[in-house]
Write a structure and sequence with these properties.
Elements lengths: L4 H6 L20 H10 L2 H5 L2 H15 L3 E3 L6 H5 L5 E3 L3 E3 L16 H4 L1 H13 L5 E7 L1 H10 L7 H9 L1 H25 L3 E6 L7 H22 L5 E5 L6 H8 L3 E3 L6 H8 L3 E6 L1 H6 L1 H15 L4 E5 L9 H12 L1
Parallel strand pairs: 1-4, 4-5, 5-6, 6-7, 7-8, 8-9
Antiparallel strand pairs: 2-3
Bound molecules: coproporphyrinogen III.
The site of coproporphyrinogen III (CP3) has 20 residues, from strand 3.
Length: 339
């Protein structure tokens, strides 16, 4: 029997108490992260330094004993490998040079091999240093979500620039998503080969798409990635997190072939239970319940356990933990789940 509970759940097994990790679990809510981050200089310097990236990945494991560690990096290292002028402005998030439709043909995916080598080195280091019972999760952004930042050049409330780009330049959009899917699949294959136990594809902006665009942008490219990854690494375990995808999630699971679907906190328990008949689910506590603590936290955790712990469940938040999350509340969360 595999010691790594999360992998057993990805195989469809029910494990109780469920394995737990938190999206963005390495980050600014931890004083030890802020210390390393200050030493590294920029956020990207931290992502590309295998010693420091290994250290910050391990910090939440040491402190809380989560069942899984997620590689410390960012989804935007792919556009960075494409030389899209990525930089992080404190308090404002990522900035890139907005891409024009006539620039897509000149992108050079071949640059990723060398550019991402330090991240792959981090994966190898983590495999050596993690306890054997801790699952190592690799990740990348889904082509659509990565494209939204490349097109707008920054985060927006509803990714209108990328949606408009898709309507006005469908062929350029298709080409961009194809390039990103190929690069991202290669990147996941390298992570799995270097020692990641499974991978998660983050489609944080899937929820702004209409039905036809969801099929074309959120399902098609991710299916291509899943097929390519499994052709190179048979049996590769893949979690798909299509945030805000709601009623599209069952089709998403079926058509992409991911092993588990990540759920945001808007997904109702009955619907989640239905999805669980097709395989593992991951989620879906509102991150604000973690900030609030007390009854709000306890009731949120209990409701998920009550409705979903009869089947294959990975406990997580419905989106990333935020810098204002109190450490004591993370401890209380784990205690509530593990009893
Ligand atoms: O989960 C983890 O602990 C692993 C590391 C990880 C980071 N980003 C570190 C990070 C992961 C998996 C991501 C994914 C990511 N990055 C997503 C998808 C998931 C999501 O949350 O929606 C997206 C959209 C990004 C792009 C990105 N990176 C944004 C919008 C920001 C700025 C937002 C902010 O909180 O300031 C980042 C920066 C970032 N990525 C930080 C961390 C720890 C904060 C940077 C810092 O330390 O200053």
């Amino acid at each position: 029997m595999d010691q790594r509970k999360l992998l057993r759940v990805l195989d469809g097994e029910r494990v109780f108490p469920p394995p737990v990790w938190l999206m963005r679990q390495a980050g600014r809510y931890l004083p030890e992260y802020r210390e390393v981050r200050a030493k590294a200089g920029g956020f990207l310097d931290l992502c590309y330094d295998p010693d420091l990236a290994t250290e910050v990945t391990l910090q939440p494991i040491r402190r809380f004993g989560f069942d899984a560690a997620i590689l410390f990096s960012d989804i935007l290292v792919i556009p960075d490998a494409l030389d899209r002028g990525l930089h992080f402005v404190t308090g404002e998030g990522p900035k890139l040079t907005p891409i024009r439709e006539d620039e897509i043909g000149a992108l050079e995916p071949g640059r990723a091999e060398t550019h991402l080598a330090p991240v792959i080195a981090t994966v190898g280091r983590l495999r050596e240093e993690l306890p054997p019972e801790t699952t190592l999760i690799g990740f990348c952004g889904a082509p659509w979500t990565v494209a939204t930042y490349m097109i707008a050049g920054h985060g927006t409330p509803d990714q209108a620039p990328a949606r408009m780009f898709g309507y006005q330049h469908p062929e350029a959009m298709e080409k961009l998503l194809y390039i990103l899917a190929e690069m991202s699949a290669d990147y996941l294959i390298r992570q799995l080969t270097a020692g990641a136990d499974c991978v998660q594809i983050f489609d944080s902006w899937a929820g702004v798409l209409d039905e036809a665009s969801f099929e074309a942008y959120a399902i098609g490219p991710v299916k291509r990635m899943v097929d390519k990854v499994r052709a190179a690494v048979p049996n590769a375990k893949i979690i798909g997190f299509a945030k805000g995808a709601g009623p599209f999630l069952s089709t998403y699971r079926e058509k992409t072939g991911v092993d588990a679907v990540g759920l945001d906190w808007g997904v109702p328990m009955d619907f989640a239970k239905g999805l669980q008949k097709g395989g593992a689910i991951q989620g879906n506590l509102d991150p604000l319940r973690l900030i609030a603590g007390g009854r709000a936290l306890e009731e949120g955790v209990d409701r998920i356990l009550e409705h979903l712990s009869d089947g294959p469940l990975i406990f997580n938040l419905g989106h990333g933990i935020t810098p204002n999350a109190p450490i004591e509340h993370v401890e209380a969360l784990l205690k509530r789940i593990r009893g």
